[in-house]
Amino acid sequence: MPTAEVAPGAKRVPGESQMRGNFYAESSYVQTDVLKGVTRNRAGTRMVCLTEDFLHGFRRAIQDECGPAAETVFRTCGRKWGMTFAQRFEKEMAEFYGKPVSEFMLALFQACLVELFSHNGWGKVTLDVSRHEEGLLIVTLDNAIFASMVKKADKPVDALMAGILAGFFSRLSGQELDCVQTTCKACGADASRFIIGLTPRLAPVEAWVANGKSHVEIIAQLASVRA
User: Fold this and answer.
1) Which regions in the chain score pLDDT beneath 70?
2) With contact defined as beta carbons under 8 Å apart, do 142 and 124 qualify?
3) Please, what is the Cα angle at 20 between 1 and 5, to 5 degrees?
4) Are the C-beta atoms of residues 194 and 205 closer than 8 Å to each other?
5) Can you give the residue ranges of every domain in the chain?
6) pLDDT for residue 10
7) In this predicted structure, what is the pLDDT of residue 142?
8) In what order do the strands lie in the sheet with 30-33?
9) How far is Cα 62 from Cα 211, in angstroms, rounded to an integer?
10) What pLDDT, on the 0 to 100 scale, is given for residue 3?
11) The 3-state secondary structure of the chain, one letter per residue
């Protein structure tokens, strides 16, 4: 798990190399060839925008086709996407900053993570590593994709994002991690929150959420048991 000084999966380094600025700077990050109808980011990766109507239809189609298994499908797909996304993130960051993500200081890693999520329309993310010594990472996400669309629900709806976060941080940390959502904006919370950790450690969390335990109570209970 990450330390308070370096990024997830990182090695400690004595200092940070000279910054090259912001990879996601607005004037340089996105370039559109109107004649070809293609938009790419500064690394040459093609970008595609999806409307809320498409995402609503995608979510309904999975639910209709998979029924009770829909959440598992979302989580599984999200995990695969998260792994691929992290791989591309590592490549783009290494090419731009001249060093692997594993050698980023935590401040740089967090800044890039915030920009990554916001520029891909996934919401405003905050990474809390204050529980790293207890084997836990906490992610807060405002304007999460499905939570923002569903508006009102009786249980967390961001299984796709939970899978993405699990895959993303598994790839970066080199460990098989899981992610469970504890609060959801669609359920009336101020933001969607997720806990990332080892799978056995997080196994009871979904049941705790279903039984009404708060995010703070869940964190406290997990912290009392070492991984």
Assistant:
1) 1-20, 26, 226-227
2) yes
3) 25
4) no
5) 52-223
6) 44
7) 95
8) 30-33, 38-41, 46-47
9) 26
10) 38
11) CCCCCECCCCCCCCCCCCCCCCCCCHHHHEEEECCCCEEEECCCCEECCCCHHHHHHHHHHHHHHHHHHHHHHHHHHHHHHHHHHHHHHHHHHHHHHCCCHHHCEHHHHHHHHHHHHHHCCCCEEEEECCCHHHCCEEEEEECCHHHHHHCCCCCCCCHHHHHHHHHHHHHHHCCCEEEEEEECHHHCCCCEEEEEEEHHHHCCHHHHHHCCCCHHHHHHHHHCCCC
Cα–Cα distance measured from residue 139 to residue 207, given in angstroms and rounded to the nearest whole number:
19
Q: Determine the pLDDT at residue 16.
A: 44
What is the layout of strands, in order, in the sheet containing 192-198? 124-128, 137-142, 192-198, 177-183
Backbone angles phi, psi at 195, to 5 degrees: -115, 130
The encoded tokens of residue 92 equal 């783009």
- Which tokens go with 50? 């999806």
**Residue 213 Cα distances to 131, 185, 186, 221, angstroms:** 19, 16, 17, 10
What dotted CATH number matches 52-223? 3.30.1380.20
Contact in structure between 149 and 127 (CB atoms under 8 Å)? no
85-88, long-range: CB within 8 Å, 24+ apart, which pairs?
85/164, 85/167, 85/168, 86/167, 86/168, 86/169, 86/170, 86/171, 86/172, 87/171, 88/45
Structure tokens at 195: 């806990």
Q: Copy the structure tokens of residue 121.
A: 């329309």
Closest CA to 202 of 172, 171, 176, 164: 176
Class of residue 172 by CB neighbours under 10 A (exposed 0-12, middle 13-18, buried 19+): buried
